[in-house]
Amino acid sequence: MALKIKSIFSKAIKTDHRDDEAAVNVDQSLSVEQKIKAIMVAVFKIDMSEINEETSSANVPQWTSLEHVDFVLNLQKEFDIEFTDSQIVEELLSYRSAVQTVTAAINGQNN
Amino acid sequence: MFVNWFIKSAQQFPQRPAVEVNTVQLTYQELGLLTGKIAQAIQDQGIQNSPVGLLTYRSFSSYAGILGIMCSKNIYLPLNPYFPLNRTQKMMKMVGCRVLIVGHECRDYFLRLLPQIKVPMTFIFPDTEELDQISSDCDHNFLFINEREGAAEFGEIGDIDEDAIAYFVFTSGSTGEPKIVQQTNKNVITYLDYVAARYNLDENDRVSQTFELTFDNSIHDMFICWKFGACLYCVPRNYVMMPAGFIKDKQLTVWYSVPSIGLNMLKLNRLKAGSLPSLKYTLFCGEALPKNLAKHWAQAAPNSAIENYYGITETTHQVSVYKWDDNISEAECINDIVSIGKIFDGLKYCILDENKKAVSAGEPGELYLAGVQITKEYFNDPERTKTAYLKIPHLGDEVWFKTGDLVKERENGNLNYLGRLDNQVQILGNRVELQEVDCILKRASNSEMVVSLAWPIKNGVAQRLVSFIAENEEPQKAKILEYCRNTLPPFMVPQDIIFLDKIPLNDNGKFDKQKLIKILEDKY
Predict the structure, then answer these.
(1) I want to staple A95 with a disulfide (CB 3.0 to 4.6 A). Which of A28, A55, B146, B168 is the partner?
(2) CATH code assigned to B206-420
(3) How many CA atoms lie within 13 A of B433 on its CB side?
(4) pLDDT tens per residue, range B211-251
(5) Average pLDDT, stretch A88-106?
(6) CA nearest B491: which of B448, B427, B415?
(7) How far A107 CA sits from the closest chain B CA (Å)?
(8) pLDDT at B35 over 90
């Protein structure tokens, strides 16, 4: 009987050891808008065709807080920028706003 | 009675801030007055030891509502406007709720809920002037207590029935029906008394409030804070996922959350060395605490003790605690997960095998708990009570709670959490029985071949749910997910559904988890 508990124990170790990273590979030839869309497709599991100016956390049910962190993480990695807390929790909550915030950050870096 | 902790502090520190919501503070006196109005409105209904629903969200009405329900000696039932209407209506019905407090922030949700309520009820609005568009066939009573002049002064509450239920907590149940845990006044005060003694706080401290009220740890946030006359900072919904700036701006001295929030901060590089100097205490609970997070948090908050709590709703909050020590704690981790420490003094525990025999020292086994802090039964549910609350013949007449958690005890008495013995997972600290999700998916898809997994598991913490369905078609996905969203709380809704011709089975005829994980790895 102790065997069963031990086998569950070994399973617990196996599953607990997984350590995935949600990095999205984005085609570097794409525009900022297209890159953001590609990240959204990968993170929120939506179709590219569904993304428009109005797409936001309010109308994409899969856009939960956990997915949002993955979204932000991918944006940061892709564009090599670090967002402020208020940008993360107040601005990056829609496609339109993400494009604006990322573009402004890139322009700020270039100036 | 723990509501008296607030009342005593209100007498001692009337002009100190008791709570801050969206940059607005209420003093102890002001929160006490709002509490008095709500308590009086409930008392006027002539009820006692009855469930009173609380439909509010991170507002002053939330805190005054809980205090008011307790002052009126009733049972509070926390509801959540982010849960589907069906679920909320079912929760109220299951416990026979006839009085509901509605915060103005939940006005629209309430107006959608109202047509589903088929029994006459009293609705109390602490901060709404009036409501138009009310349409209902039932003979409801609507009370707008802003209109009330003055408020009852509440002194310390006497004649407390220790065995009376303080509040209901709904948890996931494997049959598709939620379980209702009922925590009595005695259960709760035993817990709070024990943990309050661990902290050296006073009226100058600033304490986080991260947990949803439907998560019973919120009681810890509130009452540990108010016992010392400190100020409770309600973390806005958006900031809960990324609170570093909030902690710094508000100069919080106590932080309490699930580890997932800390992991978000770590991922986004928000735990830089010395970046959270105001913290004196950091508490984690609800999920396994990854070593990596504890180490980084210790560097970011060099003035803070870090404590890892372990407990289950049925055990009334936490039952064990481990204080992180940079020098020795790493060696006490298993699978890179921080120890859950020693079981509280005053509680009994044992670690048993499947035959309910004690395991040999240091061997893994299931944790059982007994003592005054442990609840005694599920509400109106003798069947499920029988399977979780047991007498163990060789351990006398005591009733033990079977946790379903696999643990291992070190020589020094510290425990390590190793995993679940069933299909329960934690998503953001919320308990999810995978069978409950499967049950809803079966109804939605008309397929019996359904299996859900927590995936991926990063740093020992489950990220989200993904489900597999066979004998169905991809075009049904949106409809099935819609059904889930209308039935299950947000944390129980699968992030994605993968449609397969057949669910792979292992040699024992069970779903082959490893093959399913491989499918996910290949897809994402």
Answers:
(1) A55
(2) 3.40.50.12780
(3) 16
(4) 999 999 999 999 999 999 999 999 998 898 889 999 999 99
(5) 93
(6) B427
(7) 22
(8) yes
Task: Kindly report the CATH class assigned to A26-110.
Answer: mainly alpha
H-only helix segments in A17-61 = 32-44
**How far is the C-alpha of B166 from the C-alpha of B268, rounded, in Å?**
39
Looking at 1.10.287.370, 3.40.50.980, 3.30.420.40, 3.30.1330.10, the CATH number of the domain B25-160 comes to 3.40.50.980
CA-based R_g, chain B, Å: 23
Q: Would the CB atoms of B268 and A61 count as touching at under 8 Å?
A: no
Cα(B112)–Cα(A60) distance, integer angstroms: 21
Residue B173 sits at φ, ψ, to 5 deg, of -125, 140
Beta carbons of A73 and B268 less than 8 Å apart: yes
Side-chain-side CA neighbours of residue B156 (13 Å): 10
* CATH code for residues B425-523: 3.30.300.30
* Cβ-nearest to B354 among A5, A62, A66: A5
Enumerate the β-bridge partners of residue B144. B125
Sheet strand arrangement including B281-284: B24-27, B17-21, B231-234, B206-209, B254-257, B281-284, B305-311, B318-323, B342-343
* Structure tokens that stand for B43 in this block: 């008392």
What interface predicted TM-score (ipTM) does this complex get?
0.76
Instruction: Decide if B25-160 and B206-420 have a common fold.
Output: yes
Number of CB pairs, chain A paired with chain B, less than 8 A apart? 106
Report chain B residues whose CB lies below 8 A from the CB of A4: 354
- Tell me how crowded residue B169 is: count the other CB atoms within 10 A of its CB: 22
Q: Where are the alpha helices (DSSP H) in B149-236?
A: 185-196, 217-227
Confidence of residue B147 (pLDDT cuts 50, 70, 90): low
pLDDT band at B149 (very low <50, low <70, confident <90, very high): low
Note whether A5 contacts B241, CB cutoff 8 Å: no
Coil, strand or helix at B186: helix
C-alpha distance across the termini of chain A, in Å? 68
What is the model's pLDDT at position B150?
Answer: 64
Which CA distances in Å does B492 have to A30, B107, B286, B287, B425? Answer: 36, 25, 16, 16, 10
Least confident of B113-127, B135-149, B217-231, B367-381: B135-149
Spans of all domains in chain B: 25-160, 206-420, 425-523
Inspect the interface and report whether the beta carbons of B406 and A12 lie closer than 8 Å. Answer: yes
The residue extents of the domains of chain A are 26-110
The predicted model scores a pTM of 0.88
- Calpha distance B74→B39 (Å, rounded): 9
Query: Which site among B237, B267, B425 would you substitute to test the A interface, given the most A Cβ atoms closer than 10 Å to its Cβ?
Result: B267
**Nearest-CA distance from B351 to chain A in Å?**
12
Pull the structure tokens for residue B419. Answer: 């995993």
In the 8-state DSSP scheme, what is residue A24?
P
**Mutation to test the B interface, candidates A89, A90, A93, most B Cβ within 10 Å:** A89
- Please give, rounded to a whole number of angstroms, the shortest distance from the CA of B321 to a CA of chain A: 21
Least confident range from A101-110, B111-120, B162-171: namely A101-110
Looking at residue B472, what is its pLDDT? 65
